[in-house]
Design a protein that fits this description.
The complex is a heterodimer.
Chain A (H helix, E strand, L loop, with lengths): L1 H10 L5 H35 L5 E5 L2 E4 L2 E4 L2 E2 L2 H7 L3 E7 L1 E6 L15 E5 L9 E6 L7 E5 H7 L6 E6 L2 E13 L10 E4 L1 H8 L4 E2 L1 E6 L5 H9 L6 E5 H48 L1 H9 L4 H41 L12 H27 L19 H23 L5 H36 L3 H12 L1 H39 L4 E5 L7 E2 L2 H7 L3 E14 L2 E8 L1 H7 L3 E5 L8 E5 H7 L6 E5 L5 E11 L10 E3 H7 L6 E2 L1 E6 L4 H16 L4 E5 H44 L1 H10 L3 H37 L12 H27 L3 H6 L2
Parallel strand pairs in A: 7-12, 9-11, 19-24, 21-23
Antiparallel strand pairs in A: 1-14, 1-15, 2-3, 4-13, 5-14, 6-7, 6-10, 8-11, 9-12, 10-11, 16-26, 16-27, 17-25, 18-19, 18-22, 18-26, 20-23, 22-23
Chain B lengths: L17 E12 L6 E12 L3 E5 L6 H8 L7 E6 L2 E2 L5 H11 E4 L11 H5 L1 H6 L5 H11 L14 H14 L4 E5 L7 H18 L3 E4 L3 H4 L4 E6 L2 E7 L3 H10 L3
Helix pairs in contact in B: 5-6, 6-7
The chains are: A alpha+beta, B alpha/beta.
């Protein structure tokens, strides 16, 4: 039986091309993303190890705040350095200052964009055991006005030793003279991040914290292990500080980065799985068709004594072989893809230094298993059908049951749809923990349920969609009938498209709703006419001094800024915002739900209505808070507020006074500032612009926008994300289109005799081609329209669920949807090109005579 | 013609004289108004070591009778035995095994698996059973049907007559209790047809094989030892030692 199976496979291997391609693409994507992220991860692992290689022990504050990018710690006093130095086995101990700065290019713009990692300012260490930098030109910084740039910054900015270099920090823009250019070991940057070096006192002064360091680096004598050294150093440390080994320190950074990569990896894997899911439809369809075409052969085998189990296993084995081969090739393609993507990313400037290719064996194995598994699982039902071919079918052309409209099918399908809808409801509105999984599972079951119900609906749907096409003559009628007559095949093909388009529609509707809600919120809540924003955060955002400057402009009635920091509030690490409440309430609509927002002051905290509802908060409650500065403190909840403005963060807001008392000086910034003009007529708005621009120009990286521009910037951001998602979904769509081509080809092959008859009786080649094209368009439209409806429903549900988060508007991007439908029709026409040519080129005589 | 020694009997040797028989077999298709009675209370016995032909006009039920006796189709009522085994008592797997081990088939067309060679097609039932064929016997059969130089060819490379001979060889190779042939010469020209029929006759005469053949062709039927005539789902007559002329005469009178 194995021989029959394998021979059969080789004989119709062309029919299996579409199956192989679908599996290949899905597996390639899956393995490619894993190889890419592993490689990036490994590269950064190495980078961190290189950067911290010389450090044996790190002494730092125990006071920390968790952010998504790792922990931020309070700076510690340099007083303990001599004490540490005195410990035997310590060869060198020196404090390290790390601050975020903006080195400006010769045009006054920040050298490093805010998209990637920040621009760091470091102090030049004097101990050779600890200083990893080596000068390639000039000398180390020795005075207040000296700066050393890494090789990349120097070349990007076109700086030579002796040039003036301006640096922007929270405390202002300062002028320096380039005393030298350096490399870190062999690297052009500080492990992929651009840095500038200053003398210790200079940098401390710039950051506003003289005498303090981010940590103390310690190098031990030869022969002392890191653990030994750490133990020895710990003994002399004051409370509030800790010592860890260089190894642990490195691992912390590596882990934090790996966590970020993992999120990115999961995001991409979801799309890979979607592609494979769509591919499973192609596989199911192909095997169904192959089984149907081999009915006589299967019946013969059964007649001469092959058991049902043998026949079933034969189809499964075929699926297994195809799946395995395609998966293995897919992994190869995935690796090639990873290499290509990596090269692309290095062009854009992301990713660290030479990223060696890391091929995680587990990921490769899993990809192959998943690819093969999906192929086998998708072929199970066709295999079962093969096993039930009655031996008698060998003797006559027994019509295989094609109706697929059984009541059982309808009930199972509807049940699955209902179950899926229930899971979706649970995930969206049920407030359970595993909400993402519930949503994913719910969507999955709804799609499967719809696919099962599909054949029942496919007939009538094709009939309706094909109705206008009928008018086009015989080819139209034929197209419509062909789409109707094998509902299972038509619906499975359309289902693959339905899933892809459904997801596209869902994303489009959700994004449109988000955009509409954001714009609505801005319209409803911002009273001001201008917004000043920056792309940085924390030390690289707008210095607070911009607000009084704006306020002082004669055209301005009121100005307020809002900034943020990470802090441990009420037990969990959150993004906390800060503003001057009185000024803020002037430029943005804020309503008091309880207490007084305007009265917010030192020692107090405000919570948003949603936050208060979620946690059951009441005015007067004591909230514990731990900031970067000043350790733990208790704040009293004095306001519960509500605003339409889509602010990021958790909902906690403190006054600027409290904010500035709780964070280091270089973190005292605003992310956005709003300006309310005295004259809000359009003439007044235009008149105020030059004055405001002059102020904003003094702050590198800051941008002035009127409300229209501001709204557009928000929607542009959403659009960027949308494009990325569409590109990722494109793979699934390509596979779905391959499915359409596949179905058409196989159905042409199946109808060889019929087509031959039509041609013999007088149908022209053009009419044949047109008929196939129309059939393809009907199927494409079917999948697209049903998919869009599903997408709309899903999108509506998600928007409803996110109402609390501020997504209050439901937007349908009509123009985008129309474009999608048009593209679907074009795709249908495109998919039919090759099958139509094949059909038209049939040799009439051979076709009629064929068995 | 070379004389070949008689091989031992079929593997599932049964003591009864009938290779297959039916008792009150009825088969009805459809329901209500569109009901069709294909077989009406048929009692027939096929003797061991004999060549029996089943004849009848179109719609007489001859093919249906053969399919039912061969275990390929189900019956509405009645009983069927192949050897000592009653088909009604078997489940699908047992029935399949019976077909594999005790029954041989030759169809009118599409007899062979297109992706296997002639040689592989011949040993297919035994391969399915996982049994090693008796090489000596298989070679004998192959030589008898005259296909020794064609074994590595695919069906598409063989003529119609050669394909049918391969099918006959396959049927013989596993030495079944009974071989059913459904219009085996229907698609062949007269010379190939004669060849196939001659081999079938030899199989009965020299190897003691039991063959039941459905045919509408009087010339083919003349090779049989006995003819069973069907009309409207019932057995209407039998003929022993038929000749072409006597068959044609009898067929003419069927309409009366």
């Amino acid at each position: 039986m194995l021989k029959v199976t394998l021979r059969g496979l080789m004989a119709h291997k062309v029919r299996l091309v579409a199956t192989a391609v679908s599996v290949l693409l899905g597996v390639a994507f899956m393995s490619g993303t894993q190889v890419l992220t592993s490689s990036i991860g490994a590269s950064f692992d190495k980078t961190f190890a290189d950067v911290y290689a010389q450090i044996d022990v790190v002494v730092r504050s125990t006071n920390k705040v968790e952010t998504p990018f790792g922990a931020e710690r309070t700076r510690i006093s340099g007083d303990i350095v001599p004490t540490i130095d005195a410990v035997p086995d310590v060869e060198a101990a020196e404090g390290q200052v790390v601050g975020q700065i903006k080195v400006l290019d010769k045009a006054g713009k920040p050298l490093v964009t805010a998209q990637g990692p920040p621009n760091f300012g470091l102090n030049w260490l004097t101990s050779p055991q600890l200083n990893g930098w080596n000068l390639i030109d000039g000398v180390a910084p020795s005075g207040e006005g000296d700066i050393v740039l890494d090789a990349k910054s120097a070349s990007d900015g076109g700086f030579a030793v002796g040039d003036r270099v301006d640096v922007s920090v929270t405390s202002g823009v300062r002028e320096f003279r380039l005393s030298g250019i350096a490399k870190f070991g062999k690297l052009e940057t500080w492990g992929g991040v651009q840095a500038a070096l200053f003398t210790t006192t200079t940098l401390q002064g710039m950051l506003g914290e003289p005498g303090t360091f981010d940590w103390i680096s310690v190098a031990g004598t030869d022969g002392t292990s890191q653990d030994q050294l750490r133990n020895a150093v710990s003994k002399v440390l004051p409370s509030g500080t800790e010592a860890i080994t260089g190894k642990e320190f490195t691992e912390e950074s590596q882990d934090a980065f790996q966590k970020l990569i993992a999120i990115f990896n999961t995001f991409l894997l979801v799309f890979a799985l979607i592609a494979l899911f769509v591919g499973s439809f192609i596989i199911y369809n192909t095997f169904s068709i192959i089984v149907a075409q081999r009915t006589r052969e299967l019946a013969l085998l059964r007649a001469i004594g092959a058991g049902r189990g043998q026949v079933l296993r034969s189809v499964i084995v075929e699926a297994f072989v195809v799946g395995l081969v395609a998966s293995i090739i897919g992994v190869g393609a995935g690796i090639a893809l990873a290499i290509g993507l990596n090269a692309l990313m290095q062009q854009i400037g992301f990713s660290g230094p030479d990223t060696p290719l890391v091929i995680p064996p587990v990921a490769v194995l899993v990809s192959i298993l998943v690819g093969t598994g999906i192929t086998v699982v998708s072929a199970v039902f066709p295999a079962r059908r093969a096993a039930t071919v009655p031996p008698i079918a060998a003797m006559r052309d027994v019509a295989v049951d094609r109706t697929g409209t059984s009541r059982l099918r309808l009930s199972i399908g509807l049940l699955l749809v209902l179950f899926g809808a229930f899971l979706l409801w649970l995930g969206l509105f049920g407030g359970i923990d595993a909400s993402l999984q519930a949503i994913g599972g719910g969507a999955f079951f709804v799609f499967i349920g719809l696919t099962i119900v599909g054949p029942v609906a496919a007939g009538p749907l094709a009939s309706v969609l094909g109705w206008p096409v009928q008018r086009l003559g015989v080819n139209g009628r034929l197209a419509r009938e062909n789409a109707m007559r094998n509902p299972r095949r038509t619906s499975t093909t359309a289902s693959a498209l339905m899933i892809g388009i459904g997801l596209v529609g869902f994303i489009a509707v959700t994004a449109q709703s988000v955009k509409a809600s954001t714009v609505e919120a801005i319209d409803q809540s911002i009273r001001g006419q201008y917004v000043v924003s920056t792309e940085g955060f924390g030390p690289t955002a707008l210095p607070q001094s911009i607000v009084p400057e704006l306020d002082a402009d004669p055209a301005v009635r009121a100005a307020a800024g809002i900034g943020g920091t990470f802090a441990k509030v009420d037990g969990s690490d959150k993004l906390l915002l800060a503003t001057d409440p009185t000024a803020f309430a002037d430029v943005v609509s804020v309503t008091d739900v309880a207490g007084s927002f305007i009265g917010l002051g030192r020692g107090q905290i405000a919570a948003s209505k949603k936050l208060a509802d979620d946690k059951g908060l009441e005015i007067g409650r004591e909230i514990s808070a731990t900031f970067l500065q000043g350790g733990s403190t208790t704040l009293v909840l004095s306001s519960i507020y509500d605003t339409e403005l889509p602010l990021p963060g958790s909902g906690w807001i403190v006054s600027v006074d409290q904010f500035n008392a709780s964070i280091p000086p270089d973190y005292q910034t605003f992310n956005q500032a709003y300006v309310l003009l005295r004259d809000d007529s359009s003439a007044g708005i235009a008149a105020a612009k030059p004055g405001l621009e002059a102020i904003v120009a003094k702050y590198p990286g800051a941008k002035l926008q009127d409300l229209a521009e501001f709204k557009k910037a928000q929607t542009d951001q959403a659009n960027q994300f949308l494009v990325i998602v569409y590109v990722l979904l494109a793979l699934a769509l390509v596979i779905a289109i391959v499915g359409v081509v596949n179905t058409l080809l196989l159905s042409v092959y199946e109808r060889t005799r019929e087509l031959g008859l039509l041609r013999a009786v007088g149908m022209t080649r053009r009419q044949v081609r047109s008929s196939i094209r129309l059939e393809s368009v009907i199927i494409s439209l079917m999948g697209t329209l049903v998919g869009l409806i599903i997408g709309l429903v899903f999108g509506w549900a998600l928007v409803k669920a996110l109402a609390d988060e501020g997504i209050t508007a439901f937007g349908i991007p009509w123009s985008q949807l129309v474009v999608i439908v048009v593209i679907a029709v074009l795709a249908g026409v495109g998919a039919a090109l090759y099958p139509a040519r094949r059909a038209a080129r049939l040799d009439v005589l051979a076709a009629i005579a064929s068995e | 013609m070379t004389t070949i020694s008689t091989p031992p009997g079929p593997p599932t040797a049964a003591p009864s004289a009938a290779a297959a028989r039916t008792e009150a077999v009825t088969k009805i298709y459809g329901e209500g108004e569109t009901q069709v009675t294909a077989l009406d209370n048929v009692d027939v016995t096929f003797e061991r070591g004999r060549f029996t032909a089943i004849m009848g006009p179109s719609g007489s039920g001859k093919s249906t009778l053969m399919h039912c006796v061969a275990g390929l189709d189900s019956i509405t009522s009645g009983r069927i035995w192949i050897g000592d085994v009653e088909l009604g008592t078997l489940n699908d797997r047992q029935l399949t095994r019976l077909r594999r081990d005790a029954v041989g088939f030759v169809f009118q067309a599409f007899n062979l698996v297109p992706t296997l060679t002639a040689g592989e097609n011949i040993t297919l039932p035994m391969d399915l059973a996982g049994r090693t064929p008796d090489r000596e016997w298989v070679d004998t059969v192959i030589t008898t049907v005259g296909l020794s130089d064609r074994l590595s060819h695919r069906p598409s490379e063989l003529s119609g007559g050669q394909q049918q001979r391969v099918a006959v060889a396959r049927a013989l190779a596993s030495r079944p209790e009974i071989i059913f042939a459904d219009e085996p010469t229907g698609n062949l020209d007269s010379r190939s047809g004669t060849e196939v029929l001659t081999f079938m006759r030899r199989a009965v005469d020299e190897f003691g094989q039991t063959i039941v053949m459905v045919t509408h062709d009087p010339k083919a039927a003349s090779y049989a030892d006995r003819i069973v005539l069907l009309a409207d789902g019932r057995i209407v007559d039998e003929m022993a030692s038929p000749t072409v002329d006597s068959i044609i005469d009898r067929m003419k009178r069927l309409g009366d």
